[in-house]
Structure formats: C-alpha cells, structure tokens
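Structure, all two chains, one model.
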Amino acid sequence: MNRVGERRPAAFWWLAALFAAFVLFLYGPILAIVVLSFQGPSGGLTFPMNGVSTFWFSKLWQGVGVVDIWAAFGRSLRLGAVVMVLTVLLALPAGLAFRKRFRGQSALFLVAVASLIVPSIVVSLGIGLGFRIVDDAVKGLAEATGWGFLRGYETAAGLYSSALGAHLTWTLPFGLLILFAVFNRFNPAYEEAARDLGASPWRTLRHVVLPIIAPSLVGVALFGFTLSWDEVARTSQAIGGRNTLPLELQGLTTTVTTPEIYALGTVTTGMSLVVIAIAIGGVVVLRRRRAAAGG
Amino acid sequence: MDGGGAPVMVDAVRAAPRRSWGAYWQAAPFAIVFLLFFIVPLCLTVAVSFWHYDEYSLQPAFTLENYEEVFDGCIAKLPSLCVTFATYLSTLRFALMAWVCTLVLGFGIAYFLAFHVRTVPMQMALFLICTVPFWTSNIIRMVAWVPLLGRNGLVNQGLQAVGATSAPLDWLLYSEFSVVLAFVHLYTLFMMVPIFNSMARIDRSLIEAARDAGASGWQTLWSVVIPLCKPGIVIGSIFVLTIVMGDFVTVGIMGGQQIASIGKVIQVQMSYLQFPIAAANAVVLLGIVLLMIWALTRLVDIRREL
C-alpha cells in the first residue's frame, strides 16, 4: 500500500514514533545497567556515576558472597550447549516425520503446543514430584535390600536429568514450530529431483534438504541455547542441589545491593549477545555460500 | 532417462511402507521426551493432588482434603474474599492488565512493521531489533529497571528536577505498576510476532479495495485488518495470558517479594514440602488456564492457521 516515493501518511509518523519509543523501552534499561556496571568503587545502584572503573567486574570475578557464581555460569553454559544440541537433534527428525503421515501425529503436535502453554510452574512441579517419588522408591529399596551400591543415594534429580528434561519441554516446541514454518515453504521438487537422479533418502537428506534448511537449523539452535540460558520457572522445582545461573541470579536480586549485580548482568547479557551474533553470522555465511553456489 | 528412472520408481514403491515406519522412528525420541517430562509429570501432579501427606511422607490415597485446604472457608466467608480467592483475583487482574497493554502495543508495532515499512530487508532488520532482547536474560531485564524506577532512580530524579513531584514516588518500583511494566517489557514480543505473522499474510489488494470502496483508515483497520489478524491476536493472547497466570518470577522480583500470585503460592508450598496441596493448587491453576484457552479458541480455529 505504501510504495517507495509515495508521500508518507501522518499515521506513519505516529507509528514510527511509537516504534522508536518501544525500542527505547526495550533497550533503555539494559543500557542503564551496562553503564552503571562501570561505576566507581564508591558508586551506588543509581545514577549519577561516581567515577568510571572496572572495580565491580573484578569484584565479580572474585565471586559474589557465598554463591559460587562462576560454577553456576559454567553449569548453565554446559547445560545450554547440551540443550542446544539435543533440540536440533530431536526437533529435526520430528519435523521430518511430520512431513509424512503417522498415527498420533496430531496428538503429538497438540502435546508439543500444550507444553508451551501449560504454566511453567506446573510442569516444574510435576517433574519435581516425579523425581521425588523415584528417589523415595530407590531409598526404600536401599533400606529393604541393603544393597551397597544404593547406599549414599541422594537424588536422581540434577542438571542433566530433571533440569535437562524441563528445558527440553520448553525448547523443543519452539524448534518444531520453526521447522513447521520451514517445511511449509520447502519446495519438494528439489528432493524429487535428487530421488529421480538415484539418491537414497539419506543422501537426499544430507546433500539436498539439510543444506537448504541449514540457516533455519541455526535458528533452532539459537532458540535452544538462549531459552535454556535464561530458563528459571521450569527449572525452579526440577533442579537438584546445584543451581543454574538464572536461578542464582534470581536469589541475588534480593541480597546484592551493589553494582556487582549490574556487572553480572552485563556479563550475562554479553554472553547472550555473543551467541546471537554467532547465530546471525552463521545464517549470513550460509546464505552467502548458497547464493554463491546457486549463482 | 527412462532406463534410469524405472528402478528408482520400483525402489520408491518398495520403500514406501518402510518409510512410514521411518516416521515413527524419527518422531519417537521427541515424543519420549514429552512423555517423560510433560505427560507423566502432569498425570503425577493430578494424582498427588488427591494424596494424603503428613510431615514425613507422601501417601497414595484418594482424598479431597488438599482441595478443601486450598479453598478453606472460601464459600463461608463470602462476600469477603478468602486468601485463595484474593490471590486468584489479583493474578487475573495482572493477566488482564498485561494482556490489554501487550495487545495494544504489540498490534501497533506489528502494524507499523507490516504496513508502513516499505522494504523487506528493512522489515527484517527492525523485526530483529525487537527480537534480540527476547534472547537475553529475563531476570537481568527485570533488574535493569532498578536504576530507572528506584527511589533515587532516573525517573524520580527527572520528575523532581522538573518539579512534578517534591518527594520521590514510591509506587514506581516493587509495586503492581512495576510488575505490569515488566510483563509488558518482557512479553509484548509474544503478542507482536503472531500478529505480525497474520498481517504479513493479508493480501494487500484487499486493503486497496477497501480504500477504493471509500473506507476511511479507521474503517479499513476495524473491518479488514483486525478481523484478518484474529488468529495472530488469539495466539498472542494465549501466550501472554498463560505466562502471566502462572508467573511467580516476575511478580516476585518486580513486586519486591511482597505481592502474591498463584504461581508464587505454589512455589512457596513446594519449598515447605507441602507437595499435595501445591499439586492441588497447580491443578486448579491448570483448569483455569485451560478454560481461558478454550474460550479464546472458540473465537478461531488455531490449527487451521499454523
């Protein structure tokens, strides 16, 4: 409706102002804490800046009170990486399966969507309960039998069991929905051509389908990592003794009253931005390579 | 060509039944994750909500005592609200406020991107700008309001400097206002993306036709654009409403741990190891959320739209 060169209607300027305000609303607060994390040693939680220093970063580096923040950082990073890989490895075949017909197709789709919609606290509570019941059963078994290898059993819940599962119920539906969108726009003529030329299904997938959808898979991976990296609600009741970074952060919001928490925010956000930049860079490179190959 | 094609054709025919089995193998790992970490936990939650518990253990049983405890005295006390009803009502109010704000804002932003930005690369760039914060930490995005809304924050400093207020305003942070603000800050994207998606599919000639038939800008918006955006609006609404209904993190941090919500009640009960009553609360919450979704989906068939 708006062609290039046509005069902009008044509505455009109103909406452009709204958009600009929205962007300021989105980025303003984060910019404020990034700036404030460089407070001088005597600076407080609010403006004005009391000098400029990296004091709070070096303090952060030494650790935040009793919480071993860097261990949590590492745990979240590793968990995020595992969730990212599993999200791609599980969502891709599922996306391929949905292109064919199979029994239970619509039920599985409904379950995946329901997993997005059911409140996270309910999912988290359910997973926590499940692991608790398993733990009680194992402990009961240990008492009843006296088996040595069960002695000292604490819990099956942990980073790579309950927390991993909780994260996947959140990342996999996003992955599936992205793949749905991708395959809806996918031209099957390419696959048919490969098949006509004698390619096996595996080779068709490897040399035709995957290269075409590679940029979208980067997107799925990005969702997998970043959603896991920030996850709080689903993890809260489904984590063993050792917290992830966002869970520690949630606790720190009430206890830390120095710009150290801003420094931590700057580092965490920096980490997210690096991952986003890698993903966007990856997509651009893949697109260019494809354009070069096609042209 | 014929010679090369025929064996492949035979192959394809022979492979057909095997390939349908392939779909099961491909979907199985995905399905197993949801079975183990979604279906089973939900069933357990429902089951445990009927269990009996004492200080030491959970005992399988079928009792309604947990539900009675959740709604203890609620009917007798009416018309004054018991704690449970008050909590549900306050959570509903948050959901309603967040919904209205995200809907208006999300619709406006999506409308700008879909109808006023002229080139696709520009559209993608602006869209990306809106999306990037979604991929960063929600907790940090909440903490980030402290230097702006706190007693000595930028907003209070500004208001005092221009003389709009003599004493710093206390209701800016750790209040209902800041909770709703954070919801809007965090979740407008969930509204904007599906609405934008719906708008992008609208055939532009429909709008030109409306204009040619003499419709004003508002009339076009109301009778053409909004009806065609209904699926996006419903999907976005489901997202925002369900997230806010179950929230305890945002209400906790932005409410200074002083404001109640259903999610927070469940979380506190879990931390006191009162599992069955937490489960009963979770089942009630789930029921309410499903009811809201059902009501919204009456308005539109979502599965047809995806």
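Chain A is about 75% helix and 0% strand.
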